[in-house]
Amino acid sequence: MSKSLLNQTVVVIGGGSGIGAAVAELASVEGARVVAISRSGVAPQSVEPISLDVCDLIALANALTIIGPIDHLVYTAAARSSATALPLLVCYP
Predict the structure, then answer these.
(1) Assigned domain for 1 exists
(2) How far is it, in rounded angstroms, from Cα 52 to Cα 54?
(3) Any idea what the CATH number is for the domain that residue 14 is in?
């Protein structure tokens, strides 16, 4: 692999399973620092897990602040209610 994501930070919201976990794992293989945010707190090996409910906008904002600068954001989480994190992500500095 080319390590095209070397020294970049990738955050995968919904990275605990399925497509999100696959994206997180591939980004890690490509050299990125990868953080997987999910309710389960599960993440592929070499991926930093963060456990939170993505419908909790305050918790999500706090997590994104702690992570620091983000080069790539992938949103694969399924929201369980009408509350969604997308407005927060649009406004995130």
Answers:
(1) no
(2) 6
(3) 3.40.50.720
